[in-house]
């Protein structure tokens, strides 16, 4: 294993301390607890809180979206592992301003179980009302008939953005939850991997692929995809991934979308832009307009090489919320 770290068991702690060392004017720890990151940006009194949680190893997800117009707090676990329900409950408490907290996270068993317990705890002990919204945008993880089983992947960044904007605008807990669910009904992601990643405390690759192979539909924790294929051109790959998304969420002439091309940790930006070019051209041929493309590292899987494509179908309300200003150490949006 070749990694620029100290001790594998200190990976999360060292990462969190690095974030605070670099961005301590924008984010802070909760009671010096390196498992809980809070926003330091000023907020309006009574604003609905928004929190998330998940395992580390995916930066900027989840920690990178704590900021203005985004998340108020995040609980982080070990690499690819859920944090505890007690830490999640502390995060909810820290982000409640009297009008409740939206709990927004990816559809993974450990996170769901622990957040459910955390919400029950703060309801009973602190009378804090919560709404739970799960991100389920990965079309490769289950067929449309079983969409409730789907994993949450890069599409959750769009969900964070929409929820954060609605909360900044003074939305109630129900209004914030409702518009986030509306957004998620219009978000789909499809990804692929070229290489595995190495969890520091494991010290070896999670899976292996031959030099001329790629896995279509690979999960961000190394979950098996739909199929292993031989390498193809960027244009062929864009067509393949986009076609699978469009089978699930058809688009017609006049529709408008935001496109996210997400690198999984080790994919050069040049390659991401080449894929974006092909996706944009394919959508243009269908008469689909593109607003605010997102290209870069948004939801990674350690040092995995690969990409995911996310489409977010917009209406006037969602477009307005997406374009609203947001700021965090890892995400800045000035499109107003």
Give a nutshell description of this structure.
Helices cover 32% and strands 24% of the residues. With 336 residues, it is an alpha/beta fold.
Question: Can you walk me through this structure?
Answer:
The chain is an alpha/beta fold and 336 residues long. It has two domains: 9-184, Dihydroxyacetone kinase, domain 1 (Rossmann fold, 3-Layer(aba) Sandwich); 187-314, Hypothetical Protein Tm841, Chain: A,domain 3 (2-Layer Sandwich). Helices cover 32% and strands 24% of the residues. It has helices at 11-23, 85-95, 109-126, 156-168, 173-184, 234-248, 269-285, 316-323; strands at 27-30, 33-39, 49-56, 73-79, 101-106, 130-135, 187-193, 213-216, 227-230, 256-263, 289-290, 294-296, 306-313, 326-328, 331-333. The strands form three sheets. Strands 7, 8, 9, 10, 11, 12 and 13 form a seven-stranded mixed β-sheet that branches. The protein has a six-stranded mixed β-sheet with strand order 1-2-4-3-5-6, with helices on both faces. Strands 14-15 form a two-stranded antiparallel ribbon. The longest helix has 18 residues, at 109-126. It starts with 10 loop residues before the first helix and ends with a strand.
